[in-house]
Amino acid sequence: MVKVGIVGGTGYTGVELLRLLAQHPDVEIVAITSRGDAGTAVSSMFPSLRGRLDLKFEDPSLANLKGCDVVFFATPNGVAMQQAPQLLDAGVRVVDLAADFRITDVAEWEKWYGMQHVSPEWVAKAVYGLPEFNRAAIREARLVANPGCYPTAVQLGFMPLVEAGLVDLDHLIADAKSGVSGAGRKAEVSSLFSEAADNFKAYGVTGHRHLPEIRQGLSRIAGHAVGLTFVPHLTPLIRGIHATLYAKIKGEADFQALFENRYADEPFVDVMPTKSHPDTRSVRASNLCRIAVHRPQGSDTLVVLSVIDNLVKGAAGQAVQNMNIMLGLTETVGLWQLPVLP
Amino acid sequence: MVKVGIVGGTGYTGVELLRLLAQHPDVEIVAITSRGDAGTAVSSMFPSLRGRLDLKFEDPSLANLKGCDVVFFATPNGVAMQQAPQLLDAGVRVVDLAADFRITDVAEWEKWYGMQHVSPEWVAKAVYGLPEFNRAAIREARLVANPGCYPTAVQLGFMPLVEAGLVDLDHLIADAKSGVSGAGRKAEVSSLFSEAADNFKAYGVTGHRHLPEIRQGLSRIAGHAVGLTFVPHLTPLIRGIHATLYAKIKGEADFQALFENRYADEPFVDVMPTKSHPDTRSVRASNLCRIAVHRPQGSDTLVVLSVIDNLVKGAAGQAVQNMNIMLGLTETVGLWQLPVLP
Amino acid sequence: MVKVGIVGGTGYTGVELLRLLAQHPDVEIVAITSRGDAGTAVSSMFPSLRGRLDLKFEDPSLANLKGCDVVFFATPNGVAMQQAPQLLDAGVRVVDLAADFRITDVAEWEKWYGMQHVSPEWVAKAVYGLPEFNRAAIREARLVANPGCYPTAVQLGFMPLVEAGLVDLDHLIADAKSGVSGAGRKAEVSSLFSEAADNFKAYGVTGHRHLPEIRQGLSRIAGHAVGLTFVPHLTPLIRGIHATLYAKIKGEADFQALFENRYADEPFVDVMPTKSHPDTRSVRASNLCRIAVHRPQGSDTLVVLSVIDNLVKGAAGQAVQNMNIMLGLTETVGLWQLPVLP
Amino acid sequence: MVKVGIVGGTGYTGVELLRLLAQHPDVEIVAITSRGDAGTAVSSMFPSLRGRLDLKFEDPSLANLKGCDVVFFATPNGVAMQQAPQLLDAGVRVVDLAADFRITDVAEWEKWYGMQHVSPEWVAKAVYGLPEFNRAAIREARLVANPGCYPTAVQLGFMPLVEAGLVDLDHLIADAKSGVSGAGRKAEVSSLFSEAADNFKAYGVTGHRHLPEIRQGLSRIAGHAVGLTFVPHLTPLIRGIHATLYAKIKGEADFQALFENRYADEPFVDVMPTKSHPDTRSVRASNLCRIAVHRPQGSDTLVVLSVIDNLVKGAAGQAVQNMNIMLGLTETVGLWQLPVLP
C-alpha cells in the first residue's frame, strides 16, 4: 500500500482527493492536515465520508508527512513552495495542486501571484503534470506541478492543432466557462448561492492567472510563443468546465482524424464523433476529458469543445493520475468510476 | 458472472442501473431493451457510458431476456405486470422498479394506478424489497417489488418508532421533498428547467400514489393500520429526497439509541449524531440513507430527518442491493461508491 | 414626496428596499448609509440600479437621517436598538427590518439573540408590522418591527384557523422551506453556491430564532399560548419561502370559505381555489402571499400551503407596505409589480 | 388606450408580454388566443397574473383581433406568415416575435426554417425591429419583425465596431450563452430540469437559425457581407443571454468612447465603465442591454461582453418597445421596471 498524506484537506480539491483516495485500492491515507481544524474528525466536516474514513485533521507541524510515499498539497498558493522542499529533501514525492511550481519563469509567476517565490530551485526541478503531454517526465518526477483546471481543458483541446501547426498560433481564442466550485470553498460574497445562481458572467477578462500557464503550455507544445485571448466565465454549476476554442485554419487536414489519432491511446481523453456537443455532466465526478471538433459552415475557423470536471481531471483526479504514473501503478487505478448522470 | 437484463433502459432509473451494474464486479449486462430506441447504441444516448458499455438497445421481443439470471424492469407502471410473468415462469428472477407489485391489495392498486392488474397472482408472490425490513424474504424471492423513492425514505425514518410503538400511529406526518429526477425522463412541461428551477412547490397533496405504499408498509411494520398525512414537494435539485417526519410521542425512550440500535448492522443506513442535519448531497450518487432524530425544545413532537438519493437507495441502488441479496452475493458489492460532494 | 433614509443598504433586504423605493412614486431616497462602504456609489455595488439611483453610501454618523420622514433599518440584529431611539426622539418614523423590536418579552429576546437589549422602552412602544393582523396599530405607530420572513408566511397561513379556534393549538406544525437569500449577503461557507446548490437540508431544528416570534404572534392571535413545532429548511432557490402547515381539526367548518372570507379585503393575500398548489415563483419579486387549504383524504389533519418572496412580503415589501400605512398613503402604492414568471 | 391582442399566449414570450402589457399604463389587452387552451382563464395557467388579468384564452378564429390597434404574434415559426396578412390588410399593426419576417432573403429563410414561406410580399414590407439601428423605419412600420434573442445581444455588442469599420469583418466570433427559457415552454427532454441543471453545453455549432439573422443584420450595418462564427451554449439559468464577442482590431480608436458615444442617447443600452463584467442578473426582468468593452493585455483582439434578458430585450420587452415607437408613445413607457437582483 502506498502511504499518502494530504496537506490542507478542507477545501474542495481536498475533499475530492479524499473521495478518490479513500476508494483507491492501493492507497492508505495516513495523514491529513489543517492548521485551523486540527483535531476535527474529517467525517464531521464532510459527512459524505462518514463510516469510510476514520481520520482527524492534524496540525501540519505534527503530522508524519515524512513517513509518506507521496504528499499532496491542496493548499492555497504560496504554501507548498514553503513546505514541500523539506519533504522532497526527505525523499517524499510531492504533487502540488496549487500554482506554486507551474510557471517556470519565476519573475512571471511573482507578477501574477503577487508574492516572492521562496523555492525557485524546485520550480526548475518540477514537472508539469499534464500526462497527455508529459507522461515520460512525470514517471521520473519527484515534484509534480498539477495543472490548473482551465489550463487542462484548454491545452487538451488545442494540443493536436498546435502540435500539427495547422492553425494561426498568434490568435488563439479560449472562451471558457467554469462551475462555481472552481472558486474554492472560501467564504466570499461573489461565490454565494444568491450571487452565482441564475446568473452568468465573465470575469478576469483583463488578465486571469491561468493565462500565463496556458500560454506557457501551448508555447511549449508549439516550440515557440503563441498568442492567446483567454476569457473565463462563471456559470451556475457546481462542477464542470466547458472550453470553447477558436482557431483560424492555416493548413488543411482531416481534423477529426487528427484528434482521434492523437488521443487514441489516452485512457482519459475521449474524442467524440463529428457534430457532437459534449456536455459537462457527461464527465461529472470522473477523470475524463471529452472533446469534439467542429468546422461550422465549412469556414476557415475551427471550433473545439472540451469538457472536464474541474475537481477531477482539473484537480484531484489528475493529481491521482500523476501519482499513479510516478509510482508505476496502473495509470487508471482508482480513477475508473463512471460519470454521474443525471 | 451474473447475467443481467434491463427492460426499459432509457429513463433515469435505467441509466442509473447501467451506471451501477457496469461497475459491478460480478455482473455482466447482456441485454437492455427499449421499444422506441432499438438499434441505438446506449452510449450515444448516454455519453457518460462511452467506452465503458458496448451495448445497443434491443427490441424487447428479440432480446434474450430468458437467458438472464436477473431482469430489472425500469419501465413505466403497467409493463412489468404484463412481461415479467413469462420470465418468472422461465426461472428468471425479476426486480421491478415500477409499482406493479408493490401494493398487495389489488383493488387499491387499481384505484391509484388507474388500470386493471393483469397479474394478481404474482402480486401475491412478490416480495417487497426493503432490505432493512424484509431481508430474509428477499433472500428467497423470485420477484422483488422494489420500493418507491418516497416510501424508502419515509419508512426507514419511521421504522424504529413504529416497531417500538412509542408514537401516535394515527397521526403520522411525512413532509417530503424530492429532486426533479423523481419525475422521470419524460417530456413534460412541469419538469422543464424553466418551470422547476428557482421554484418550490407542493404537489399531489390531495393524494399521491406513494401514500398507499407508505401506509401499507408502516401498517405492516406496526401490525395494524396507521394514519398518515403525506405531502410531497418538488425542490430544484436533480437527485435527492429529504423526508421530514413528525410523530407525537406516546411513550418515553432514548430515541437516539433506539435508532442507533435498530440500524447498527445495516450497511446502508447511517444514524447521525444528535443535533445533526443530514443534507441530500451527503448521500448523492450513493446507496445510503442518513437519518437524524430531533426532539425540538423538549416537546412531545419528535422530528426525524431522513435523506436518500432517489435514483440510488430510492430506485436503482436498492434494486441492485436486492439482487445481491437474492443471489447470495455480498450485499454491498457494487454499491460502495462514496457520495459525490460537492 | 416622502423623504426616506436607509441604514445599512448593502445586504439583500437593503438592495430590495432600493429596488422598491426607487420605483415608488411618492418617495425620495435621500440617504443610504454603510459604515464599510461609505463613499461608494450604490450603483457600482448593485449595477442593476445604474442610471436610476444616483446616491453614494454615506457614513451613518454623517448622513442626514434626522431630516427624513421615515428611516428603514436594514442592518444586522442589534444595530437598530442602538441607533433608532435618537431618530425616533427627533420625530422620525422608523421601520426596523431586523429583529430588535419584534419580541416583547425582552428576556426571551436576549436569550435567543445572545445580547443585552439596550432599548427595552422602545420594545414596548414598537408595533409588530403584520398589516393583516395589526393594521390599525401600524397606522398610529412611530416604530414598526417588521416581521421576519418565516413568521410572515407561517402566521398568514395559520391566522384564520387560530382566530376561529378550530384546530388543536397545542400541536401546530410548521415545515418551512426558504431560498438562500434568507441567509443574507454574508460571506459564509454554508451559503456558498457549491454548498447550497443541488442540495436540500433542514437546519436549526433544535431552535431557530423565528420560533419565539411565530409563537408570540400565534399566541397573540389566539389569545393564549400555543404549541408549535417549527422546522426550517434550506432549498436551492434565491428567493421564496414555502410554508407547509399542519393542524389537527377540532371543529368542523368550510375551511376554504374561512380563509377566503378572512382575506377577502387583503390586497396582498391571495387564497387560491381548492386543490391548488401555490409555487414560490408565482409570487417572485412581488409583495404577495398565496395560500391554499387542503384536507387530504378527508382526514382530521388540515394542510395549509403558504408562499411568499422572503425579500418582499418577507422583508422589504412588507416594510414599504408598513410605511405606506403609517403615512396614510395608498397601501399598495409602489408594491403593485406583477410577479416575474418564469 | 391602445387596444392590444396577443396570438399564442401560452409560451414564455406570451406570458412575458402579458406581464409587461398588464402593467403598461396606455394599453388595454382585449384578446389573447390559444387554439389548444381556448376557454381557460389566463390566470389559471399563469397564477402570477391572478387578480390582475381577467381574460380567457380565445380560439384564434373567434377573437376580435381586427378590432385591435396592435397584435403581437407569440407563436411558433410559420404561424404569423399565415395569419398576420389579413390583420395587416385590415389596418392592424403587427409585431411578430417569431422569425417569419426576419430574413429578407426568402430562399435563405426557407432553407433554415424548413418550410415554404406563404407571404413573401410581407417579408419585403416588414421592418426589422432593432430600435437602436432602425428606429426611424419602425416609426413608420405596419409590420415589425421582432429580432431574435441572440441576434439582439450580438448585434448591439458588435454594432459600434461594425459601423466604425475598425475590426476584421471577415472573422467575427460570437460565443453566446443562453438561459433555458430561450428554448420555450415546449415539453422536450433536452429542456428538462434534470438534463439542463448543473450542466453546460454548446449546441447547434454546425448551424443555428440565428446565424443567418445575425449575419444579415451585421452585413446591413457594415454595408457588405461579414464573416461570422456563432456558437450558442445552454447554461443553467432561466433568463439571460451573455454574448462574448471577439474581433481583430484593424484600426486604432478609443473603443470605450466609441461605444459610449454610439449609445449615449439609447435608453435601453448601458455601456459600463472599462474593466466591467456585466452579469445577466443585472438586467433580469428588465429591457436593458449592458455592454462592456475589453482589450485584454493590450493585444489586437477586442472582447465585447453584452448581456440581455432573453425574454425582455430579447423578445417581449423589445416587442413592446417597438409598439411604443410605432404608435408614437414614449419609448420607455411600460418598460421602466428595475432589474430584479438578487
How many strands of chain A?
13
Oligomer: homotetramer
Shape of chain A: globular
Q: How much is the average pLDDT of chain A?
A: 97
Low-confidence stretches of chain A at least 5 residues in length (pLDDT < 50)? none
The helix/strand series of chain A, from N terminus to C terminus, equals EHEHEHEHHEHEHEHEHEEHEEEH
State the secondary-structure class of chain A: alpha/beta
CATH homologous superfamily classification of the largest domain in chain A: Dihydrodipicolinate Reductase, domain 2
Q: Describe the strand arrangement of the main beta sheet of chain A, using strand numbers.
A: 8-9-7-10-13-12-11
Give your account of this protein's structure.
Chains A, B, C, D: It is found in: Cytoplasm. The first copy, chain A, has eleven helices and 13 strands. By secondary structure, chain A is an alpha/beta fold. Chain A has two domains: 2-125, NAD(P)-binding Rossmann-like Domain (Rossmann fold), CATH 3.40.50; 149-309, Dihydrodipicolinate Reductase, domain 2 (2-Layer Sandwich). In chain A, the strands form two sheets. A seven-stranded mixed β-sheet of chain A has the order 8-9-7-10-13-12-11. Chain A has a six-stranded parallel β-sheet with strand order 2-1-3-4-6-5, sandwiched between helices. In chain A, strand 1 (2-7), helix 1 and strand 2 form a beta-alpha-beta unit. In chain A, helix 1 packs across helix 11 (312-327), helix 6 packs parallel to helix 11 and helix 7 runs parallel beside helix 9. The radius of gyration of chain A is 19 Å and the shape is globular. Chain A starts with a strand and ends in a 15-residue tail after the last helix. The model of chain A has no long low-confidence stretch (mean pLDDT 97). Chains A and D meet through strand 7, strand 8, strand 9, strand 10 and strand 13 of A and strand 7, strand 8, strand 9, strand 10 and strand 13 of D.
